């Protein structure tokens, strides 16, 4: 909104600042952060009153988690509120990439909300059927992927080898939708400890803030040998708003958490990161930057696969962060060490920009 108003006025005087992505990105971070911090206390109080017993806790999980009973969930609604308001104020809403990302973020958030609501209402950890959830997620991701390829094409770019970029044709829609859904669920699986998913999402958002800015600038993209995607630079503002909203939520989600993100937030943020990666044609790099989330998802797949075939477990408990808890690591130790891993992987992912 601010950008369109400034453009309508001809960017006079100080309003010329709104031409710059860096200024609007900073504004988006600050706005989302302040909104989240302001609405947080009342929002958490409202959730506590409405939910009563809060999020159900697994009896077969680490015993230390039983003390968290009564903690409200659906904190992702707070993230979505601060994120969407910030985007409405600072983004150029004529950009189709913005709408694709917002569509996935809101759509995945609503699927997560229905899942959280079902868990709280029934006081069970199952939630909505996994098949129904995936069907809804693929439908949303498919529409967003179609919007994206209409603007940026269907080529898949391979990191480290800038001359390898096969055109997947309409199969790219399937690949892109899978990337978005897979990453949304990977972040969802990671959200099992206080602050565990929030900071890695912030770190990944900062990394992609750099990537989309470079991909949207023809000079930088040509110099680095990465795909140039006109209009992708605007998503740096989107990433900035995610950083601000994530930091505000982390203020209340830091151990001991006053509120849980829930599927409402984890699915939305994971889906948003997946969509941003598809826009920038850095889907494979997402697997490096978001390697922590990939590791968490793979631990569940491996555990289920081997248990169904052998009756034995590879890990003491999956996702893998629970495995380390069962080994005797304290929750803060697991969280901080996983944050360090996320930071290192983000640096590794950013290094692919030059190693081509």
Automatic annotation (TrEMBL):
<feature type="transmembrane region" description="Helical">
    <location>
        <begin position="73"/>
        <end position="91"/>
    </location>
</feature>
<comment type="similarity">
    <text>Belongs to the glycosyltransferase 4 family. MraY subfamily.</text>
</comment>
<keyword id="KW-0961">Cell wall biogenesis/degradation</keyword>
<feature type="transmembrane region" description="Helical">
    <location>
        <begin position="196"/>
        <end position="215"/>
    </location>
</feature>
<feature type="transmembrane region" description="Helical">
    <location>
        <begin position="334"/>
        <end position="353"/>
    </location>
</feature>
<feature type="transmembrane region" description="Helical">
    <location>
        <begin position="97"/>
        <end position="114"/>
    </location>
</feature>
<dbReference type="Pfam" id="PF00953">
    <property type="entry name" value="Glycos_transf_4"/>
</dbReference>
<keyword id="KW-0808">Transferase</keyword>
<feature type="transmembrane region" description="Helical">
    <location>
        <begin position="235"/>
        <end position="252"/>
    </location>
</feature>
<keyword id="KW-1003">Cell membrane</keyword>
<keyword id="KW-0131">Cell cycle</keyword>
<feature type="transmembrane region" description="Helical">
    <location>
        <begin position="285"/>
        <end position="307"/>
    </location>
</feature>
<dbReference type="InterPro" id="IPR000715">
    <property type="entry name" value="Glycosyl_transferase_4"/>
</dbReference>
<dbReference type="InterPro" id="IPR018480">
    <property type="entry name" value="PNAcMuramoyl-5peptid_Trfase_CS"/>
</dbReference>
<feature type="transmembrane region" description="Helical">
    <location>
        <begin position="20"/>
        <end position="40"/>
    </location>
</feature>
<keyword id="KW-0479">Metal-binding</keyword>
<keyword id="KW-0472">Membrane</keyword>
<feature type="transmembrane region" description="Helical">
    <location>
        <begin position="259"/>
        <end position="279"/>
    </location>
</feature>
<keyword id="KW-0133">Cell shape</keyword>
<keyword id="KW-0460">Magnesium</keyword>
<dbReference type="GO" id="GO:0016740">
    <property type="term" value="F:transferase activity"/>
</dbReference>
<keyword id="KW-0812">Transmembrane</keyword>
<keyword id="KW-1133">Transmembrane helix</keyword>
<dbReference type="Pfam" id="PF10555">
    <property type="entry name" value="MraY_sig1"/>
</dbReference>
<keyword id="KW-0132">Cell division</keyword>
<protein>
    <recommendedName>
        <fullName>Phospho-N-acetylmuramoyl-pentapeptide-transferase</fullName>
        <ecNumber>2.7.8.13</ecNumber>
    </recommendedName>
</protein>
<feature type="transmembrane region" description="Helical">
    <location>
        <begin position="170"/>
        <end position="189"/>
    </location>
</feature>
<comment type="pathway">
    <text>Cell wall biogenesis; peptidoglycan biosynthesis.</text>
</comment>
<dbReference type="InterPro" id="IPR003524">
    <property type="entry name" value="PNAcMuramoyl-5peptid_Trfase"/>
</dbReference>
<feature type="transmembrane region" description="Helical">
    <location>
        <begin position="134"/>
        <end position="158"/>
    </location>
</feature>
<comment type="function">
    <text>Catalyzes the initial step of the lipid cycle reactions in the biosynthesis of the cell wall peptidoglycan: transfers peptidoglycan precursor phospho-MurNAc-pentapeptide from UDP-MurNAc-pentapeptide onto the lipid carrier undecaprenyl phosphate, yielding undecaprenyl-pyrophosphoryl-MurNAc-pentapeptide, known as lipid I.</text>
</comment>
<keyword id="KW-0573">Peptidoglycan synthesis</keyword>
């Amino acid at each position: 909104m601010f950008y369109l108003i400034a453009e309508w006025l001809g960017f006079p005087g100080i309003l010329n600042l709104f031409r710059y992505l860096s200024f609007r990105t900073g504004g988006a971070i600050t706005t989302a952060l302040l909104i989240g911090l302001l609405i947080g206390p009342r929002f958490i109080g409202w959730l506590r009153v409405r939910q009563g017993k809060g999020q159900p806790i697994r009896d077969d999980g680490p015993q230390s988690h039983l003390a968290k009973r009564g903690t409200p969930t659906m904190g992702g609604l707070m993230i979505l509120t601060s994120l969407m308001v910030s985007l409405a104020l600072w983004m150029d809403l004529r950009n189709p990439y913005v709408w694709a990302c917002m569509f996935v973020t809101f759509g995945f958030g609503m699927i997560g909300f229905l899942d959280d609501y079902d868990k709280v209402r029934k006081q069970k950890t199952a939630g909505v059927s996994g098949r129904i959830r995936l069907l809804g997620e693929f439908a949303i991701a498919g529409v967003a992927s179609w919007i994206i390829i209409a603007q940026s094409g269907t080529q898949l770019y391979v990191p480290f080898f800038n001359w390898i970029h096969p055109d997947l044709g309409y199969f790219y829609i399937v690949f892109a939708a899978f990337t978005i859904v897979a990453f949304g669920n990977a972040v969802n699986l990671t959200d099992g400890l206080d602050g565990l998913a929030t900071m890695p999402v912030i770190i990944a958002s900062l990394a992609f803030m750099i990537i989309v800015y470079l991909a949207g600038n023809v000079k930088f993209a040509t110099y680095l040998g990465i795909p140039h995607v006109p209009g992708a630079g605007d998503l740096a503002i989107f990433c900035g708003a995610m950083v601000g909203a994530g930091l505000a939520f982390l203020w209340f989600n830091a151990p001991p958490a006053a509120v849980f993100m829930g599927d409402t937030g984890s699915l939305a943020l994971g889906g948003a990161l997946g969509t941003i990666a598809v826009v920038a044609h850095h889907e494979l790099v997402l697997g490096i930057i978001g390697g922590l989330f990939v590791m968490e998802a793979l631990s569940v797949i491996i555990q289920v696969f081997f248990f169904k075939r052998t009756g034995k477990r590879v890990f003491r408990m999956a996702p893998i962060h629970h495995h380390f808890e069962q080994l005797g690591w304290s929750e803060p130790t697991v969280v901080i060490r996983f944050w360090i891993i996320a930071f290192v992987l983000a640096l590794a992912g950013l290094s692919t920009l030059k190693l081509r």
